[in-house]
Design goal:
The structure is a single chain. This protein is of the alpha/beta class. About 45% of the residues lie in helices and about 20% in strands. Strand 1 and strand 2 form a beta hairpin. The relative contact order is 0.11.
Length: about 200
């Protein structure tokens, strides 16, 4: 089956689902809608934020997730985004790969802990190595008094969400908004490539 035939079949399926009232959303990227019988994709222009944390810090990170949503961001947290039966290690890796920022939440409970939090952190550090040096991607957050791992603390400034959560949250959202705007301006200056 050629790519053209597959593409037409996909558009027909999307159109049929939309006419039947079924929403079609691509998590964090946008949604398909019908506009006068024409299928259009409405991109989600919200800033995507991945939340890495140890399970012992879930309640504090859930508050951060909720506050980011209310502030107009598109946060990704495993307990809110993973579906039953989903390959969770792969879903987490994919979410990290497409995020605009990864917020690594450290606490006295997480810094010395072994487990999947450390895997997420290593994957995020690997992605961060591919970013331009002047771009902010990995943002360490301290939920409580603790030492940020040396590999991160040597080069990256952290934000404290304690004892004054509101002040830390405001600094975080201001930084992400400013950085996203800066990236947007930088990308708009690049020449557009024509696709024939």
């Amino acid at each position: 089956m050629s790519d053209t035939v597959r593409g037409k079949a996909l558009i027909e399926l999307i159109t049929r689902c939309l006419r039947e009232g079924a929403p079609i959303q691509i998590d964090g990227l946008g949604k398909f809608e019908l506009d006068h019988d024409e299928v259009v994709f409405q991109p989600n222009n919200r800033i995507r934020v991945f939340l890495a944390y140890a399970k012992e810090d879930r309640a504090a990170v859930k508050q951060l997730y909720d506050d980011l949503q209310k502030a107009g961001f598109e946060p990704w947290m495993d307990v809110a985004k993973l579906m039953p039966g989903q390959n969770w290690p792969r879903a987490i890796q994919q979410a990290i790969d497409v995020t605009d920022f990864i917020l690594v939440n450290f606490s006295h409970r997480s810094v010395g802990k072994r487990g999947h939090f450390q895997c997420e952190l290593r994957h995020a550090l690997e992605i961060a190595e591919r970013m331009p040096l002047d771009e902010i991607f990995l943002v360490p957050l301290r939920l409580s008094e603790c030492d940020v791992p040396n590999e991160i603390a040597r080069t990256t400034q952290y934000i404290d969400l304690f004892p004054d959560y509101e002040s830390g949250f405001k600094a975080l959202t201001n930084m992400m908004t400013t950085q996203a705007l800066k990236r947007s301006k930088k990308n708009s200056r690049k020449p557009k490539r024509r696709i024939l």
